[in-house]
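Recap from last week: sequence in, structure out.
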Amino acid sequence: MHPDDDLNPTVTKELVIYLERFVTVERFQKFQQAILFRTRHITVALEDIFQSHNASAVLRTCDCFGIQDVHIIENRNKYEVNPDVALGASKWLDMVRYHESEDNTGACIAHLKKQGYRIVATTPHKHGFIPETLPLGQKTALIFGTELAGLTPVALELADDFIKIPMVGFTESLNISVSAAIFIQTLSNRLRKSDIPWQLSETEKNSILLNWLRQSINKSDLIIQGFPGNKQ
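Predicted structure tokens:
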């Protein structure tokens, strides 16, 4: 999901060990603790979210509950991280943007399906699952639309399943950041309590740790040039 994924796994691990000395012991321990709860078994896709504070709040939720990848679909609206809302969450996540085709929604969903994800559209207008009943055995991609219009017909047509939050009041929908928090918190807790192999591989862990270290160390690229195994 980021350039470090292209490195040889052995080199990546050695780079993590090399860069560890440039952060405090406490910070690296925080990284090691956080990586244990990261997952790519559940991922999130945001379709054309034009209110950056809502999308940025979703990034915070993903970070808080260990969702590593967020897919940003930009059809009409370019997404900009709102730093006051995201509070730095974006630098701990892998964000994949789709903005180069006429059908970025289709491109995102095709990419996710190729990776083995089941596409689950979040909408109150379709009969489907609720957070407590959605099967989690297969890798799952939750796709969210705008608060005003919801998901596009393309997203709904290409979805494999639907999920909604049961409500008993007069208002039919929640703010996207609120609904995303409910979905992600419930599903991630269920996943961690299951016997599903949701954890990252050691290669993935090291790749993400390396990226976190890069983000945390001033002039990390210059420091990496002094890495004994650097052949660049």
